[in-house]
Amino acid sequence: xxxxxxxxxxxxxxxxxxxxxxxxxxxxxxxxxxxxxxxxxxxxxxxxxxxxxxxxxxxxxxxxxxxxxxxxxxxxxxxxxxxxxxxxxxxxxxxxxxxxxxxxxxxxxxxxxxxxxxxxxxxxxxx
Length: 127
What we know:
With 127 residues, the chain is an alpha+beta fold. It is built from 2 helices and 9 strands; from the N terminus they run αββββαβββββ. The chain has helices spanning 3-28, 76-79; strands at residues 36-42, 48-54, 57-64, 68-74, 84-91, 97-99, 103-104, 110-115, 123-126.
């Protein structure tokens, strides 16, 4: 093969490899799933620590101050595959706690959890 033909062949191989590499990188850098918003309205006078239960793990979201509303962000990756979580609230200064049933949640949805003055009467909705 002549030197100029070899150079053209090498350039063509390098361009093709570069194009394949670019396609692989851009394909693997997909957008993360949208987060889930957890809105907690606490009608109880006690502060309540909020947890998400997911695949046997208890993940602390934060504190829902008594007689107020708080917003928490659940990472979308947490519900991306199984779509199943439960919520747990533990009152501070009391043995009282509340747990939701298993919730089916998709990335980008919103959960509204209203903690009643008696925690066992709390209600939850997924929108």
